[in-house]
Amino acid sequence: MGELLLCSRELALVPYYIENISTNVYSLEELCYYLTEYIDLVEVSFMDEELIQWIGTALQMEELSEKLEQLKAQGMFSEFVCAVASGCNYCTEEEILCMQDKLTVFEHKSEVECKKIRADRLLQTKRYHSSISAYKKLLEHPQAYGAFAGDIYHNMGTAYAGLFLFEDAAACYGKAYERNKNPLSKKQRRSALQLAAGIFPQSQAGAMDYRIPEEALDQWKEAYLRSSK
């Protein structure tokens, strides 16, 4: 994973495969690293019987495995994740509390709402390509329609703007406004089209348009990143 980890136990002979980052882990420390760095990607499916068995057999941590089995049976998702993170000394208490706070946001939310929260967090952490991919998949969900779909398109537009793909951003903002009728989406579409053309919008005094200097372009980009819904 690109970082030297000091493991308290011998590495497992058989790894556990983490599908959403396409990575094998051989220790609980590596698994905790994944939780620390990618907590926004962790879904309820993480409470996997295969994971529980791997911890019990490959890592020979039967007590933790039994505890996780009980938490899974009770459907206690955030407690399950935090129990894994507490199984070794890799995560600090502060990091575990942070995980718990992020996971409790998903409680009493529908599947599609949870997926949007995760996509939005990818956007907020400037993982633009990952957020765009997540938004596209989210738009395929049968409950992604109306104003909710408009909000998804709006945030996808913001992700494209973060990559300086202003024509794509404008297209997304346009689709957003068609669905949510939010004036912000309409305004962002107009600004994205102006950025795509490399010009400033006209001032209120009716001044001529100008080419955008690099520092101004950076300022506009930052403004986009604050416009997610």
Main sheet: strand order: 1-2
- Poorly predicted residue ranges: 200-213
Average pLDDT level: 86
Q: How many helices does DSSP assign?
A: 11
Shape summary? elongated
The profile of the biggest β sheet is:
2 strands, antiparallel
The first-to-last residue Cα distance is: 32 Å
Overall number of strands = 2
Question: Structural class, from secondary structure content?
Answer: mainly alpha
Order of helices and strands: EEHHHHHHHHHHH
Computed CA radius of gyration, to the nearest angstrom: 22 Å
Q: Approximately what portion of the residues adopt beta-strand conformation?
A: under 5%
* Helix coverage percent: 55-70%
Structure description:
By secondary structure, this protein is an all-alpha fold. 60% of the residues lie in helices and 3% in strands. The chain has helices at residues 28-38, 49-57, 62-73, 77-85, 93-104, 111-124, 128-139, 146-162, 166-180, 183-196, 214-225; strands at 16-18, 23-25. A two-stranded antiparallel sheet has the order 1-2. A hairpin with a 4-residue loop joins strand 1 and strand 2 (23-25). It starts with 15 loop residues before the first strand and ends with a helix.
